[in-house]
Amino acid sequence: MAGDGQAGSVGIEQIRRAAEAIAGAVHETRQRPSRTLSHILGCEVILKFENRQFTAAFKERGALNKLLHLSAAERAAGVIAMSAGNHAQGVAYHANRLGIPATIVMPKATPNVKVQFTKSHGARVLLEGDSLAEAAAFAHNTAEREGLVFVHPYDDPHVIAGQGTIALEMLGAYPELDTLVVPIGGGGLIAGIATAAKALKPEIEVIGVQSILYPSMKQVLAGEAVTAGGASIAEGIAVKQPGTLTRAIVKRHVDDIVLVEESAIERAIALLINVEKTVVEGAGAAGLAAILSDPDRFRGRRVGTVLCGGNIDQRLLASVLLRDLVRQGRLARLRIRLGDQAGELSRVTGLIGEAGGNIVDVAHQRVFSHLPAKEALIEVAVETRDDAQLAAIVERLSHAGYAVTRLAED
Prior knowledge:
The chain has helices at residues 12-22, 35-41, 59-68, 72-77, 86-98, 112-120, 132-146, 157-173, 188-200, 216-221, 244-253, 262-276, 282-293, 295-298, 314-327, 344-354, 387-399, and strands spanning 31-33, 44-48, 79-82, 102-106, 124-127, 149-150, 179-183, 205-211, 256-260, 302-306, 331-339, 358-365, 375-383, 403-406.
């Protein structure tokens, strides 16, 4: 994907100055090899824990660098940003620290927890529009009407330079890295990282990652119509139109963009919790999802990826973890047909227990069924060690004369 063309006004010197400017106010988050993931994937995996920033996302870097470049008059007037999540909190937090009035426009459907977090940092929050595009239009109109500085979430040289400081830290600690795998939404993160990485180590390969539902950067650079849309678990990179400045930088410095399935992102979230004991949002797991999806491409390489955010809804996280148990065969729903007579339910649960299964839930259906009146259906949620034990439970029930169906996970 590398090519010629103007890459905007962001270079390694701007990124180095950004690193000096934000030092001490933004965490230099840890990066370290994952021995377990490296063993699973057949490559050396280096993780950058940007989910450990104060607001749990990398967005602080670019937001702060932008704020530090405002004139005294601009600081006094205040700033405005449009965001449904991480950018909102990054701008609000650092604006509050610097004494800069901040207004954040969020779509009406933004989860209340994100609204409250943003308000807790001292920002004025306006809920406007039924979509990000409508909220953005309102934010631009408000900026013009009130004389505020609009802080773009990605298409701004100072924001891009701030995000690029991640690459300085990664290659400073692990100069032997030969591949960087970076999530792409609007493109600010990968534009900054790729600019710095290629300046420090021209031979390094930089690979962008997008959800298959939102392939906007890949499509734009290929000259294709954008078909992005859908309910992605990686809402942080669910962007329909990448930035103008960022796409020029990506075209010049990024070697490839890969698309990952939503199921791969879910698996990566669960794996990071189980292996690394760290919570990431969907966008933050996209890099690992790309490696999981194509391990042969990365085999034997030294691969760095950024866990760019950790702000995931608790209910969604719980659903991801339970769905992962289902995929592993450690949690399943069985539909069992049995006689509607005393002792049958006890007998079935006894057989499951004897086989080592743990019953999580039972639904007993006598009325709403097309079965004969003297038969019933039960649906049992069973927890097991693995798929082999689940198969043994089904075999035991079948051998005892019960018709058993394992219900699909979707």
